Amino acid sequence: MLLQRLAEHARQDTTTRPFHRPRAFQWQLRIRLDGTLAGDRVESIQTLDAKGRLQGIPHTVPAIVRTVGVAANLAADDAQYVLGWGDDTTRPERVARCHTAFVDLTRRWAASPEGRDDPIAAAVDAFYRSGALATVPRDPDVAAKHGVLLTVEDGAGVTHAYDAPSISRFWEGEVARRKAGKDTAGTGLCLVCGTVRPLLDTLPSKVPSKLVPGASNDAALVSVNERVFGYDLGIRLASTPICIPCGEAVSAGLVRVLSSPHSVRHSGQDSCLAWWTTEPSEFDPLSLVLDADPDAVTTHLETVHRGHPTRAGIEHAQFCAVTVGGNIARIMVRDWLQMPLPQLDARISSWFDDQRVTPARASEHEYQPLQRLVLVCGRWLRREKRYVFLEAKGADRPAGVERDLLRAAIRGTPPPASLLVHVINRVRSDGHLDTARAGLIRLCLVRSPLTSETPLPGLDPTNTDPFYVAGRVFAVLEAIQHAASDGKLNTTYGDRYFAGAITTPRAAIVNGRKDANAWLRKLRRSNPGAAVNNEKALDELFGLLDSTAIPGHASLPQQGQFLLGYHHQRAHRFQTIRGATATDTPSTDNQEHHA
What we know:
It comes from Actinokineospora bangkokensis. The protein is built from 19 helices and 17 strands. The protein is of the alpha+beta class and 595 residues long. The strands form six sheets. Strands 2, 3, 7, 8 and 9 form a five-stranded mixed sheet that branches.
């Protein structure tokens, strides 16, 4: 099904030409319609990039995958093919074979039924037959693998040889001749289109390595070059029969989706997700997951909850998503999904409902974009007040976290259990819990089969879970000390106990309750009203915990409940202060553990 959908997607683009690929060209050779030279030398077409370095000009030309053998492309190729020029990295005998192959291909093009009446094909053939190439002076700056274009001039202007009218038809036949099956049955039932056609031996093109994280070379989607890897000891495409048009379409479709705006890849991650729909849609179903624009998310949730479709007229459209990674020259399909588009609406709605959490800061939002969730899985730099960059070494960020979160969003499944372990350990190590981390913890808890009661997005006064209450108590104790000292502390209650309280709250709460008496006495002298309010809040919370119910060692879900209670209590307090003062004061938002 994946191959079929990729082929269908490629055929939606009517502007592309089969078996053509973009590449950079550094030089051009101009000839006339009669086959004579229009210039006296090979001319550079290079330009300077932003850093002042020479770079070639991209052109989309006839091309197929080339391995270690000699295989010429048509009308534009390396200097060793077009000009027969080598350098100190090439062997003269190989360069000669490359040039001979290019000249032979040109002559067959000019003599073919497609090229027989094409003046461009005739001009290029006449040039090579005339021996005029021998009069072109050798330019030492031309490397053997530099790209060289052939252009043909007439009275009307200049035409690139690869734009000749007969190029596409002849080139398709040439590719079919080269790629027709050697180890397959030759002709058979295509796995993709379901028709009997000539089958491929190998896919005619590869995916550029820049589009596939982890690939060091241009990579193939289907490739078996050793019998031990193939089904029934078959090699090449023996177990994956694909006809010539479908083989080209599959690769072109994958390139199209990976290079489109509907793809996401971040530095430091091991995969790329790309998605498309089988019918045109103005609404990008994953843009909400990636951007989490508050207004757009709110609108989407309202329409879904009311049962109104977000896209009228395409209820039967399918959403397709593929996640790929690379290993040298192989593409690994890490995930493939196809579902009805309306079903995806419901899953995205659940994604935001499950990660929603009340923000602690006025600058934060209750819904988090994907990149933010990925970012907060890394280390927090306390001095710089930021997370380690995505591509930085030693970030302690799981390599597959982006893929895992995207899969959870699209499939509606829980994130891996290891993600909750990792995030809580990072909170303990960094001493830092913000809204995004709290949202990620809530997402893991809501979707965990070990969670008996779904935690609310904001403060839940009715929640008597001892670990949730313990988190709230810790936040209140921290706030009392902060208020009593006016924030002027070298070592805070949180600095001393926060990491240990996550796994074993009892010691931190018992010691904090004893210290709170001194903090409250100090606070009564400076702010009696605040002292009364804080003492009342503390007594109410301890009223939910009797002396035997102060929690001890916490399991993983209980650690998450502690952190949610802690965050909810702090967020509630900050919201109350902002509501009263209409300002986001340093005395509230700049406390540690919450920056």
